[in-house]
Amino acid sequence: MAKDHKMSQLEIKAREWLKERGVNIEDIADLVFYLQEKYHPNLDLEECRANVERVIAKREVQNAILTGIQLDVLAEKKMLEEPLQDILAKDESLYGIDEILALSIVNVYGSIGFTNYGYIDKQKPGILQYLNDKSTGQCHTFLDDIVGAIAAAASSRLAHRAAHQDS
Predict the structure, then answer these.
(1) With helix as H, strand as E and coil as C, how does 29-58 read?
(2) pLDDT per residue over 68-108, tens digit each?
(3) What letter would DSSP give residue 5?
(4) How many Å is the maximal CA-CA distance in the chain?
């Protein structure tokens, strides 16, 4: 993160919760690289990481992270009322609210993020494969979509910045 960036308590907590759930900034940077390497021949992981850091610094992203992770944790602890408990525990494909929450992150950097998000959500590379593994005993109904959305938003940010440098 930029040296002059002072993290709010909300950002600190969002970052802590990501880490507690097994997601590191590097994991998300790897996803950005996966999405953007063929469009940016000189792309490196540090640039990907910097864009992830900027996305996570946004308050609306922090709110989505905290909301989604809290719902996943409550589902893991079986603390939700039925039928929501069963829907989240199974990550039912027709539920869709997890994707809607993720789209609030994707929207931050414009429409290109929708394409990036849809693609990575279907491919499930890297950390997304782990988060979708139901055999771990953890519930990541929201977190997998949030992580994919952060990567999509960071990819979009990278693409926008590259387009302005080219003009």
Answers:
(1) HHHHHHHHCCCCCCCCHHHHHHHHHHHHCC
(2) 999 999 999 999 999 999 999 999 999 999 999 999 999 88
(3) P
(4) 54
Per-residue burial over 112-148, b if 16 or more Cβ lie within 10 Å, else e, is: bbeebbeebbeebebbbebbeeeeeebbbbbbbbbbb
**Reduced to 3 states, what is the DSSP secondary structure of residue 2?**
coil
Asked whether the bond before 125 is cis by omega within 30 degrees of 0, the reply is no
Mean pLDDT of 134-140: 91
pTM: 0.94
Distances (CA, A) of 86 to 69, 121, 131: 17, 22, 18
What's CA 69's distance to the chain center, in Å?
Answer: 11
